[in-house]
Fold TolB protein.
Amino acid sequence: MRTPTYKLAIVPVLMMTLIACSAEQDGNAIAQEPGNSTAGVVTPTEPVQTAEPAKSAEPTREAAGPSVTAGEIGHYEDIVISDWMDEDTVVVSKENDKLGKMSLEELADSYPKSLYFYHLDTKEFELIKEQENVFLGDAVLSSDNRFLLYSEFSLGDPVYYVMDLGSKKTFSITGDDIAGAMSARWADDDTVIGPAYSGGAFTASTSGKIGAVEGLSGEGLVVVRQIKDKIYYTSNSGESLQTFDLNTKEKAALKIDHVGSVIPSPDGDRLLVLQYKDSAQALLLTDTDGGNQKIIVEGTELGGVSWSPDQRMIAYSTSADGNGTASAALYVYDLESGKSIKVADATGNLTSSWSPSGKQLAYTEWSGDQSSSSVVQLKD
């Protein structure tokens, strides 16, 4: 997801703040949307128990071993890759100049952003959703690829929508019971969950049924993720990770403090927890009950966290200041070898997402008010 005047600079800053707040809960941000369009096809320019000791935030290639290597990297300017439909198709957000510039005075120098499928093999865009005077982004597919969760934003708070990709029908996650969604994540193929502006958590089914989660109403929640029959959450009153059992309605504390985001494994048996510790951060791997804790990496700024589909690999980014110069890099941690390898250098904050086979890793760099995406080919 220039060099604007001071007044118009408010717009990209607001957009980046919004995206950061949304991505942070997925571990895809630091303590947290790509080319030129013409008519038709467009081609872009090219702790329950003590955790084990932390790994280095910048592992050496020798320490990483030969388990995974980075191959060719494809670069895509001014588009934001947020998910994968298949090995050759990604979901992207990008400016749509065919719609004309935004009508609001504060956004008058910006074009709306629309959602597309981008075909990596043919370099063609396929329109999913366009709308005048709004930025569309944060698009994530349900695991069966039938529905798309996305956000709509201009000024103020974002509104989240669910689209049936077959019929193209959409509904907004709003209503008197929840006063809107602060953020939204897929809980399963048919359900979206997140913190509600009214307090507590909400669920929204793909059929359009929206309601508050009984037992959590009134609490100011920040992180909300559902894993199987439990909701994992943090509240405004504390950053400790709590659970709420949807069957028994019982609450429990996992004794994992300073939680910034929770990223469940694809099978729902383990968690990655991004923790804040003074001026540093740590990426913690743990069972869903808080047991078997292991620190994967520590660093001053961590983000871009995502699981590979087979759960063998964990992507993460780390930033550091070297000789007064800020630098960032994307790493892949191999759970089998217990070692990391750097797969790409970067210039800003990162988000990441894996292709269905786990052989490609997309990442988007955020630097100031600009963004671009890249795809790394990974080899065993």
Observations:
- Residues 10-379 form a domain with the Methylamine Dehydrogenase; Chain H fold (CATH 2.130.10.10).
- Residues 1-21, 29-50, 53-64 have pLDDT under 50 and may be disordered.
- The longest helix spans residues 10-24.
